[in-house]
Amino acid sequence: MAAERGIVFHPSPVLRQKARPVERVDGFVAELVRDMHRLAREYDGIGLAAPQAGESLRIFVTCALYGEPERVFINPRLELKGEIVGGEEGCLSLPDIRAEIMRPPQARITAIDLEGNEFSLERDGIWARVWQHEFDHLEGTLIIDRMRPLDRLANRRALRDLERSAGGGRGR
């Protein structure tokens, strides 16, 4: 039996890779999605991207919250609109690190579901932000890359502790 997946923490290299497209939705993908939903719920997340579960694939999930059902987004594409606004974000792969991240407030997403069907959704507010955050993971981008200098300074110790606990010792 395979080992149970867990959350992958910074500075794991999988978090910095541009994730590969999913070629076909099969049993492996379905199992990965089940694990991702489990991990997101277990760690009180709103969403989780496949690289955070150790798989460099273009998949992310969102939890059933704020009137939305649990969803999976395979090979997502995003279109963003609106004046950029700030909002506080955290990340399961960067525990104890929070910062104001600037993002457009509206998003349209097109993706594939577990049955292989393409769908599109449009949201603003929290869901537009969550989709952008998770999409960033598929591009190898973390919130620490989007932080303002003051937030980077405020989170320096937590970031250094994460890197040390992973054996990273030295930052970039």
Give the SSE order as H and E letters: HEEEEEEEHHHH
**CATH H-tier superfamily:** Peptide deformylase
Uncertain spans:
168-172
Query: What CATH architecture would you give?
Result: Alpha-Beta Complex
Q: If strands are numbered along the chain, what order do they take across the biggest sheet?
A: 1-2-3-6-7
Distance between the termini: 37 Å
What is the makeup of the main sheet?
5 strands, antiparallel
Number of domains: 1
CATH topology: Peptide Deformylase
Rounded to an integer in angstroms, the radius of gyration calculated over CA atoms is: 16 Å
Task: Explain what the structure shows.
- The protein is an alpha+beta fold.
- It has a single domain (13-165), classed as Alpha-Beta Complex (Peptide Deformylase), CATH 3.90.45.
- 28% of the residues lie in helices and 28% in strands.
- The protein is built from 5 helices and 7 strands.
- A 5-stranded antiparallel sheet has the order 1-2-3-6-7, sandwiched between helices.
- The longest helix is centred in the first third of the chain and has 16 residues, at 27-42.
